Amino acid sequence: YKFLSRRTDSKFNKVILKRLNMTRKSKAPLSMQKLAKLMAGKDGKIAVVVGTVTDDKRLYEVPKLSVCALRFTETARASIIKAGGECLTFDKLALRSPLGKGTVLLRGPVKARAAERHFGKAPGVPHSKTAPHVRAKGRKFEKARGKRSSRGYKV
């Protein structure tokens, strides 16, 4: 994609190159449920995910999809192929659609990591929804003043 982004004036290739060089944190996984929802009504197009496509047990009927991704979990790959779809790699996509025509570029939820709960305004500050780093979740741990109205006040 370095070659394609340099030699073609396709914005798609430049975006793919940028996303391939991102950190692992920025290449968030995308579930089959979300993939099917986002690809509804886009027949004949290839879904492109720079990241992993994971299986979703909640999705009973997998639609026929053409998906290009960095990785597929074994069960996700099996369910796509069973539905009559296909799993592509990025080198196959480059041969099939060098300018990104007929593709839909998707990405997983980057802010859905468990660690993101602890980022933002400090816990205890008014209007903060940030989770504190607590050793345990019991009665004795950060459950006193400021956390419950029965203990003085609640922020």
Summarize, please.
The protein contains five helices and five strands, in the order ααβαββαβαβ.
List the helices and strands and how they pair.
Blueprint (H helix, E strand, L loop, with lengths): L1 H6 L3 H10 L9 E2 H7 L7 E9 L11 E7 L1 H9 L3 E3 L1 H7 L6 E4 L49
Parallel strand pairs: 1-2, 2-3, 2-5, 3-4
Q: What order do the SSEs take from the amino end to the carboxyl end, as H and E?
A: HHEHEEHEHE
Helix/strand-derived category reads alpha/beta
Using the CA coordinates, give the radius of gyration.
21 Å
Quaternary organisation of the protein chains: single chain
Largest sheet: 5 strands, parallel
Strand percent estimate: 15-25%
* Terminal Cα span: 51 Å
Low-confidence segments, given as residue ranges, are none
Mean pLDDT: 90
**Could you tell me the number of beta strands?**
5
- Approximate shape: elongated
User: Portion of residues in helices?
Assistant: 25-40%
Helix count from the secondary structure assignment: 5
Structure in words:
The chain is α/β, with parallel strands linked by helices and 155 residues long. It contains 5 helices and 5 strands; from the N terminus they run ααβαββαβαβ. The radius of gyration is 21 Å and the shape is elongated. The chain starts with a helix and ends in a 49-residue tail after the last strand.
